[in-house]
Amino acid sequence: MPIEILMPALSPTMEEGNVSKWLKNEGDKVAAGDVIAEIETDKATMEVEAVDEGTLAKIVVPAGTEGVKVNAVIAVLAVDGEDIDKAGEGIGEEPVKAETATTEPAKAEAAAPAKSEAAAPVAAAPRTEIAADPDIPAGTEMVSTTVREALRDAMAEEMRRDGDVFVMGEEVAEYQGAYKITQGLLQEFGPRRVVDTPITEHGFAGVGVGAAMAGLKPIVEFMTFNFAMQAIDQIINSAAKTLYMSGGQMGAPIVFRGPNGAAARVAAQHSQCYAAWYSHIPGLKVVMPYTATDAKGLLKAAIRDPNPVIFLENEILYGQSFDVPKMDDFVLPIGKARIHKSGKDVTIVSFGIGMTYAVKAEAELRGMGIDAEIVDLRTVRPLDFDTIIASVRKTNRLVVVEEGFPQSSVGDHIANQVSQRAFDFLDAPVITIAGKDVPMPYAANLEKLALPNVGEVVEAVKAVTYRG
Amino acid sequence: MATAARKAPAKSKSRPDGKSAGLSAPKPVDFTKDEELDAYRRMLLIRRFEEKAGQLYGMGFIGGFCHLYIGQEAVVTGMKMALVDGDQMITAYRDHGHMLAMELSPRGVMAELTGRRGGLSRGKGGSMHMFSKEKHFYGGHGIVGAQVSLGTGLAFANRYRDNNNVTLTYFGDGAANQGQVYESFNMASLWKLPVIYIIENNRYAMGTSVSRSSAETDFSHRGASFKIPGIQVDGMDVRAVKAAGDLATEWCRAGKGPLILEMQTYRYRGHSMSDPAKYRSKEEVQKMRSERDPIEQVKARLLEKKWADEDELKTIDKEVRDIVADAAEFAQNDAEPDPSELWTDIVL
Fold first, then answer.
1. Which of these, A133, B148, B154, B264, could form a disulfide with B167 (CB 3.0-4.6 Å)?
2. Cβ–Cβ of A246/B129 closer than 8 Å?
3. A237-262: average pLDDT
4. Which residue segments constitute the domains of chain A, with CATH numbers given?
5. Is-contact B181 B191, C-beta < 8 A?
6. Average pLDDT for residues B172-197, to the nearest whole number?
7. Which residues form the Lipoyl-binding domain (chain A) (predicted)?
8. DSSP assignment, residue A88?
9. Closest approach of chain B CAs to the CA of A393, in angstroms?
10. Which runs of consecutive H residues, i.e. helices, occur in chain B?
11. Do A211 and A202 form a contact (C-beta atoms < 8 A)?
12. In chain A, what is the straight-line distance between the N-terminal and C-terminal CA atoms, in Å?
């Protein structure tokens, strides 16, 4: 039997990739361990080695093909004297290209080998048109950009603008970023301003804060915010409190950024949302963008901000594309929520990756005749209660969606404040949707159960709108 | 070799200590008359200030934690004498002496201790948290060891700006066992940062003696794994400290990277005001006071060399007491912060 060579998954969140180069031709002998192709993921270009011995019978996916789905057949290997002409027959006729990327991630669906009962079936939802952001002048040219590129552009622009801005962290320079966020920065700005650190989170967080106290403007990248637990003392006790403790004499203009929350199948120690944790701390600002536009405009704002800013990104969102305005200097205000989609029946408040559930639920609800308004907080501290309350006064119903743990969640705080400030406008209790109150499990089905899902959001909206 | 305050443990020859890097503790260099008088006045200010702070604590004017520096005055004084303008200092919570050495206003420090609006942090920092950008003093930090990474970051900024300033990063024998100290050592050495790590070994981490808390009690060796040379210094002799400070600042300014100075010193009082110090004998304290006191050493030299007589020294003492009395008077009578200050300086 000929052996099918499949498109490999080369990272926890990889769903598709590009076949950039074949290093063997059809008819070539291949030994186990031979490099046969180069695959480009959103993080890196990786070499693919043959596992079996044989003759490369057929290249199904030619070099230069983009968007090849994981597990698609990319080549066929004939073994033990099999006829190489026949070995490839009938293979490669099915489409291997991934569907056109949308703004909605298919992460959980793609990662799970089996359908879980808890997961609400999501039909191909009509795409939610993102409402116009009043901070973007009408008629501005928009360019499709990934969140990853937007973050990189934001840093590069600010580093060009201000010589005191530098970036430090693990693998930010030579490696080009563990998640490729700092790609190209070393080449443009050199090792003085793009600083590879040892694996030493507590230490380099403190070094960053010290440099900030001396007036520099560090961007400290954590490979993930899970590792920032090692550094949380410096973030809270040194960065957040110095301005107050010094009577306003000295603060720390620093950005701590990196991926936050669950990625895919990386289990309990690598899957945790810190939005609520950092939002607890006076002296910090906490930003958690969803779109590439917000990622860019808010990261630029965070770098300019004279305060310590926690900038929570998400690995699953890195590869998603959004229309980003083509402007010379696009800076958004920290602390201002954005109406992602206007509606009149219910308010869904979310932020960061939580928005992906809100957006999908909104589309489903639209099919049921429920017109939901989606508020993307963008900033978790300071919280834009004006926007939340204005929306609740209009819709009289509120559902909050986030991936973090439920106790003392961002949603809990919002529910509390809305009940105090807009009680008379509520026609139903506020429902908060969060991750389950369990450490993140590894198994695909359990992981899916632990995260919020679109069905929960839909059910919550139906409950607060008193629909069946 | 400087006179050790205790018997130094036997050293292994294989370790890359200060000597292998071509360094050894410099001999104390005799001070000029002006230097002796300057050191005397500076150390006496710290001693009298701390005595007054202890008194005000007892009277209830100072609250919370209050860690006095009495006995260790030579360490900050000698190091300050080795600095040039723009050099920075950062330390932990036993910080009043460091602030006075960096010439922060005694009124401002004392009023901060009493939590008044005229305090350096407008009453919001207290004993452990004071800063002065103008005087290059970066605190004042309450979390043991955190200042070591921060000080390394200050040095990083100096290297980034290529400005030839050095950072004095102080910590105690207790903090020397915190993990981030070694994370900082590694980066400082890797990047050749101009930072002097000054380990004030006063022999007790709160109530735990060095021998009960530290596997390696020769703190000058603590940088060995990071190729940071270190030297032991008699921290009770201000001349020895100054000589070590001159060597260390020159080392850093030459771009050779970090250096460790273990200052062998002693605190006369308890860890904080509420510590009865039952973990050591009265005789041990008395012996240090009578034989090794940093201020008495300078005084004896001044008298011996006839650079000052008793009357002149009394005059200096009177001047210092006046400064401290004025600070205490101010600190007791200054108003508390306006309630609106609760909500200021949280974010800019």
1. B154
2. yes
3. 97
4. 3-87 (2.40.50.100), 142-325 (3.40.50.970), 336-464 (3.40.50.920)
5. no
6. 97
7. 2-78
8. T
9. 29
10. 33-58, 73-80, 96-101, 106-113, 146-161, 179-190, 210-213, 238-253, 282-292, 294-304, 310-333
11. no
12. 55
Specify the length of chain B in residues. Answer: 348
Beta strands in A32-174 (DSSP E): 35-40, 45-49, 54-59, 65-69, 73-78, 142-146, 165-169
Check residue A92 and give left, alpha or beta (phi > 0: left; psi -120 to 50: alpha): left
Q: Which of A159, A220, A241, A244 to mutate to test the interface with B (most CBs of B within 10 A)?
A: A244
Contacts of A322 (CB under 8 A, 6+ apart): A103, A130, A144, A145, A146, A147, A150, A291, A292, A293
Kindly state the tokens that stand for A266: 């990386």
pLDDT digits (tens, 9 = 90+) for A423-442: 999 999 999 999 999 999 99
Selecting from A206, A208, A247 the residue whose C-beta is nearest the C-beta of B121 gives: A247
Question: What is the Cα–Cα distance from B337 to B348, expressed in whole angstroms?
Answer: 19
3-state secondary structure B93-138: CCCHHHHHHCCCCHHHHHHHHCCCCCCCCCCCCCCCCCCECCCCEC
Cβ–Cβ below 8 Å for A210 and B158: no
- For the beta carbon of residue B227, count every other beta carbon within 10 angstroms: 15
Mean pLDDT, residues A193-209: 98
The reply to whether A213 touches chain B by the CB within 8 Å rule is: yes
Residues of B in CB contact (< 8 Å) with A are: 88, 90, 119-125, 129-133, 138-143, 146, 148-158, 160, 179-180, 183-184, 186-187, 190, 344-348
Residue B260 binned pLDDT confidence (cut-offs 50, 70, 90):
very high
The mean predicted confidence, pLDDT, of chain A is: 90
What CATH topology corresponds to B22-330? Rossmann fold (3.40.50)
Distance of CA A273 to CAs A18, A383, B180, B323, Å?
31, 17, 25, 53
Pairwise CA distance, residues B147 & B72, whole Å:
19
Dihedral over Cα of B117, B119, B121, B127: its sign: negative
- Tens of pLDDT, residues A400-428: 999 999 999 999 999 999 999 999 999 99
Chain A, chain B: beta-carbon pairs less than 8 Å apart? 141
- Among the partner-chain residues A192, A197, A285, the one whose CB lies closest to the CB of B187 is A197
What is the rounded CA–CA span in Å between residue B241 and residue B20?
21
Within 8 A by CB and 6+ apart from A297, the residues are: A135, A154, A330, A331, A332
Nearest CA to CA, how far is B59 from chain A (Å)?
24
Contact B68, B269 (CB under 8 A): yes
User: Catalytic positions of A, please?
Assistant: 201, 270
Task: Read off the pTM.
Answer: 0.89
User: If you average pLDDT over each of A24-28, A94-98, A408-412, B10-14, which comes out highest?
Assistant: A408-412
The answer on pLDDT for A91 being more than 70 is no
The H or E element that residue B232 is part of is: strand B230-234
At residue A35, what are phi and psi to the nearest 5 degrees? -80, 120
**For the stretch B75-106, what's the b/e string if a residue is b when 16 or more beta carbons lie within 10 angstroms of its beta carbon?**
bbbbbbbbbeeebbbbbbbbbbbbbbbbebbb
CA dihedral sign of residues A269, A271, A276, A281: positive
Angstrom CA distances, A322 to A15, A263, A291, A404, stand at 18, 20, 6, 24
Closest CA to A105 of A318, A375, A367: A318
Q: What is the DSSP letter of A237?
A: I
CA distance B142 to chain A (A): 9
Condensed to tens digits (0 to 9), the pLDDT of residues A138-184 reads 899 999 999 999 999 999 999 999 999 999 999 999 999 999 999 99
Task: Dig out the tokens for A268 from the structure.
Answer: 């309990």
| Amino acid in position B293 | D
